[in-house]
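for the writeup, i need someone to sanity check this before i put it in the appendix. the sequnce is what the collaborator sent (i think, or maybe the updated version? ugh). structure was predicted straight from it, no edits. if anything looks off just tell me and ill rerun, i have time this weekend
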Amino acid sequence: MPPLISQKRQHPTQKGAPAPDEESARSAPQPAPETRPAQPRSGAAADAADYIWSVYALNGVAFPADSRRSLPALFRACKDRGEIDHSTAPAIGDIVFFHNSVDSNQDGRNNDWYTHAGIVESHADNGSVTLLSYRGDKVDRLIMSLESPDASMDRHGGKLNSQLRAPADDDAPFTQYLAGQLFAGTCSALGERAQFVIVDNWEPGMHLEK
């Protein structure tokens, strides 16, 4: 099977107008997002799950409704489908899950499972991957290397791992902070698709349609 090609939708557009596409030779324009009712769950992890759920729905992959705003439920849905992997080479379009990116239960311990996730956008020559994820009130790009999880930079100054967790004075001993260190598994749910449309202008409340 040929390598998966990621395609980008970048800038917000008015309803009914085609979204700009910087790879127009490979991708037809997509219509603008439309608003939808608010979901019951809230918070950063819920928005991260909603972003992934929405992008996958745009690409014709349906996850259960209860996983739309729950990263643990999204991971379980992947696991139930037999699509969880822990290899060091996630493919474009794969979902990458992370543990302990935040002390979500505020107990001062590193026991916070599936607190963040992103979608693989591209690969770099140094073995790292770029992920798109919703964090900090926007779609953000993270760098992760599972070949060198404890290094932030390579010997040439190229980035290997983004800092995914912010240090705090009361962090537990042995707390880790880099994306590769917090890796919790990969979900490969795209099947035999040769192309995957990614969206980097998503916001909570948007509904993506082809």
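The chain has two helices and ten strands. Residues 5-104+111-165+174-207 form one domain.
thx in advance!!
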